[in-house]
């Protein structure tokens, strides 16, 4: 698996973030749009810088409040998406994250959402780009991965798939075991984050208190195992919103990030090997 980390997880300028991520031997980044907007350079400059550092730009995000909208808002969002696609093509970023709608204009209509995501995926396909749909824990009508998968499946477009995020699933105490039944090729991206168990608004919890695998209380091992059972073999990424990390020297944060991924991978490998040995030695 390729290892990635979101630029929002690091302190510093975008150049400093990328240099720290590359030094920690990551393969790729998730590029947050705000980091690009504040970048003192062109799209070409950013693509060259990432390439020189040996980093792919595996995901561009976020694209908000798209699906399940009234027709006028939907048409405006298609125009908005085309401008994002221009940037993605110039960056060489193949995948855009579309998070589930939080707008008060959104309609509780899965068929409409599926049709609109199909139309977006068709536009993306013309440019050889892909769309990943993610259920936000605070989404207005879609907040669980099963709902998002149902819409993706209904939309039935090869350039539309699912993005899974451990925080959004585990913060709602949703059961990840159903992930194993999703075809792995329909999962386009995997984001991991741990967190301490906290009794607070999930949006504030998500925006300020995520941390690296092994630093919180979520069962990330089981979540990751279920994803592997699906057959997923894509990028393994960290998306960490944490106020302390954004104030810590980014080289230290990037090294801790890589260590956390290696720790998680080792824990899951040991877990799967124990299960295999137990099955082979059984009656």
Give a brief description:
The chain has 283 residues and is of the alpha/beta class. It has helices spanning 14-23, 33-37, 43-52, 71-91, 110-126, 145-155, 166-170, 202-208, 220-229, 250-280, and strands at 3-6, 28-32, 56-63, 95-99, 130-134, 160-165, 187-192, 236-238. It has an eight-stranded parallel barrel, surrounded by six helices.
Written account of the structure:
The chain is α/β, with parallel strands linked by helices. The chain is 45% helix and 15% strand. The protein is built from ten helices and eight strands. Strands 1-2-3-4-5-6-7-8 form an eight-stranded parallel β-barrel, surrounded by six helices. Helix 5 links the parallel strand 4 (95-99) and strand 5 (130-134). Helix 5 packs across helix 6. The longest helix has 31 residues, at 250-280. The radius of gyration is 19 Å and the shape is globular. The model has no long low-confidence stretch (mean pLDDT 95).
Describe the sheet with the most strands.
Answer: 8 strands, parallel, barrel
* N- and C-termini, Cα separation: 34 Å
Low-confidence runs:
none
Oligomer: single chain
Strand content: 5-15%
The gyration radius over C-alpha positions equals 19 Å
Roughly what percent helix? Answer: 40-55%
Number of strands: 8
Give the count of helical stretches.
Answer: 10
Strand order of the main beta sheet, please? 1-2-3-4-5-6-7-8
What is the H/E order? EHEHHEHEHEHEHEHHEH
Helix-strand category: alpha/beta
Round the mean pLDDT to the nearest integer and report it. Answer: 95
């Amino acid at each position: 698996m390729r290892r990635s980390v979101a630029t929002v997880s690091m302190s510093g300028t975008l150049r400093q973030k990328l240099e720290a991520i590359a030094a920690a031997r990551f393969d790729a980044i998730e590029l947050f749009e705000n980091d690009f907007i504040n970048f003192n350079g062109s799209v070409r400059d950013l693509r060259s810088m990432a390439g020189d550092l040996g980093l792919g730009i595996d995901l561009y995000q976020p694209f908000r409040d798209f699906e399940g909208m009234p027709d006028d808002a939907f048409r405006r969002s298609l125009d908005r998406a085309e401008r994002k696609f221009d940037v993605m093509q110039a960056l060489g970023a193949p995948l855009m994250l579309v998070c589930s709608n939080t707008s008060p204009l959104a309609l509780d209509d899965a068929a409409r959402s599926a049709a609109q995501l199909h139309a977006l995926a068709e536009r993306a396909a013309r440019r050889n780009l892909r769309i990943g749909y993610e259920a936000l824990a605070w989404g207005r009508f879609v907040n669980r991965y099963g709902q998002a998968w149902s819409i993706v499946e209904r939309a039935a477009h090869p350039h539309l798939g699912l993005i899974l995020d451990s925080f959004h699933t585990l913060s709602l105490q949703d059961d990840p075991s159903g992930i194993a039944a999703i075809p792995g090729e329909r999962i386009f991206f995997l984001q991991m984050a741990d967190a301490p168990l906290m009794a607070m608004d999930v949006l504030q919890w998500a925006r300020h208190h995520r941390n690296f695998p092994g630093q919180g209380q979520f069962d990330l091992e089981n979540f990751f195992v279920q994803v592997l059972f699906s057959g997923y073999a894509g990028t393994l990424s960290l998306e960490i919103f944490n106020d302390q990390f954004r104030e810590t020297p980014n080289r230290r944060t990037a090294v801790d990030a890589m260590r956390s991924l290696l720790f998680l991978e080792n824990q899951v490998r040991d877990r799967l090997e124990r299960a295999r040995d137990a099955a082979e030695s059984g009656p």
